[in-house]
């Protein structure tokens, strides 16, 4: 109950305060949601991705464990999502939106605070989460962009769109500068901090604006299926892969916890940016975030059974 209370007061309620502000702002001013989406896509996301990766401390051994875990976990998660898609017989646009809702999870503005709370700011656990966050930034900005456009345009045109997204260039740049121990000038680092600190409120207010403008009709069954994959199947697969690889200790626990967070705002941003099932995407984020207060608590409790 103590952990449940901490998650509620320090993670869930702050998130929903910002989302609520976005809803009220939408009702009052009817802002242009696509402009806000572009701001996040082309400014905030690449900057926070670069900064967090540049500042993280990961050994090659831990990095290898994280990558191996993620690849195995993601393959299993894709299999589960694709099975549901085939059974339900979704149309092309709905397929991509459903995949995104299950495969893209909130490893940044939900996963990082949760990691800090559960592991008491352990640098090892935080480095694990930052790496997962980095991977989760790459996938929506590459495969995610392709998936929401594949049914509407040729792959060459989609590839051109992907190459215009700055996030994919920030990853190697951060690795190169960190490997070469190249310092970032204060004149650049200070505004970088300002932008990074603005990511969470701008992203969540944008989500609130979209939620405030979505249709009332709730796609209950499809949203529930997405939530079951994201909040139930994903952490179960996380435990399974950890046991298969024989991982132990805080790295194993951080990896499992990283799998259990709700659907990412990226799925909504992609849906808005490329006009693809916006209402469904917003509903999956809202529903999974609310329900995660229960599922996350159970996962945190079960982590005590991981050796080390």
The end-to-end span amounts to 23 Å
Which structural category fits the helices and strands?
mainly alpha
Contiguous helical run count: 13
Query: The biggest beta sheet, please?
Result: none
- Taken together, the total number of domains comes to 1
Just name the CATH architecture: Up-down Bundle
Low-confidence stretches: none
Into which percent range does the helicity of residues fall? over 70%
Query: In one word, what is the shape?
Result: globular
Chain-averaged pLDDT: 84
- Radius of gyration (CA) equals 19 Å
Number of strands: 0
Order of helices and strands: HHHHHHHHHHHHH
Q: Could you name the CATH class?
A: Mainly Alpha
Kindly estimate the percentage of residues that lie in beta strands according to DSSP: under 5%
Output the CATH topology. Answer: Na+/H+ antiporter like fold
Which characteristics define this entry?
308 residues; mainly alpha; Na+/H+ antiporter like fold
Written account of the structure:
- This protein has 308 residues and is an all-alpha fold.
- It has a single domain (2-305), classed as Na+/H+ antiporter like fold.
- The protein contains 13 helices and no strands.
- α3 runs antiparallel to α4 (92-103).
Put the structure in a nutshell:
By secondary structure, the protein is mainly alpha-helical. The chain has 13 helices and no strands. It has one domain: Na+/H+ antiporter like fold, CATH 1.20.1530.20.
Layout of helices and strands, plus pairs?
Blueprint: H1 2-29, H2 33-55, H3 60-88, H4 92-103, H5 111-118, H6 123-149, H7 155-163, H8 167-179, H9 186-213, H10 220-245, H11 249-259, H12 265-273, H13 278-302
């Amino acid at each position: 109950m103590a952990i449940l209370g901490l998650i509620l007061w320090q993670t869930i309620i702050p998130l929903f305060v910002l989302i609520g502000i976005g809803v009220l702002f939408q009702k009052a001013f009817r802002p242009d949601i696509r402009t806000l989406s572009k701001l996040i896509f082309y400014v905030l996301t690449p900057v926070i991705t670069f900064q967090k990766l540049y500042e993280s401390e990961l050994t090659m051994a831990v990095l290898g464990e994280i990558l191996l875990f993620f690849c195995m976990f993601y393959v299993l998660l894709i299999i589960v999502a694709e099975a549901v898609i085939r059974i339900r017989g979704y149309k092309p646009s709905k397929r991509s939106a459903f995949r995104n809702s299950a495969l893209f999870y909130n490893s940044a503005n939900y996963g990082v605070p949760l990691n800090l709370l559960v592991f008491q700011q352990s640098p090892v656990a935080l480095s694990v989460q930052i790496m997962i966050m980095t991977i989760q930034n790459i996938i929506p900005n590459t495969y995610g962009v392709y998936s929401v456009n594949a049914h509407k345009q040729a792959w060459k045109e989609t590839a051109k769109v992907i190459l215009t997204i700055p996030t994919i260039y920030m990853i190697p740049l951060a690795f190169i500068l960190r490997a070469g121990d190249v310092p970032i000038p204060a004149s650049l680092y200070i505004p970088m901090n300002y932008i990074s600190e603005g990511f969470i409120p701008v992203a969540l207010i944008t989500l609130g604006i979209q939620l405030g403008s979505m249709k009332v009709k709730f796609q209950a069954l499809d949203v529930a299926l997405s939530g079951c994959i994201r909040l139930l199947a994903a952490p179960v697969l996380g435990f399974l892969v950890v046991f298969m690889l024989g991982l132990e200790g805080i790295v194993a626990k951080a990896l499992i916890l990283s799998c259990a967070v709700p659907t990412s705002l990226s799925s909504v941003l992609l849906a808005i940016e490329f006009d693809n099932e916006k209402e469904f995407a917003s509903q999956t984020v809202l529903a999974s975030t609310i329900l995660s207060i229960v599922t996350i608590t159970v996962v945190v409790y079960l982590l005590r059974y991981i050796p080390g």
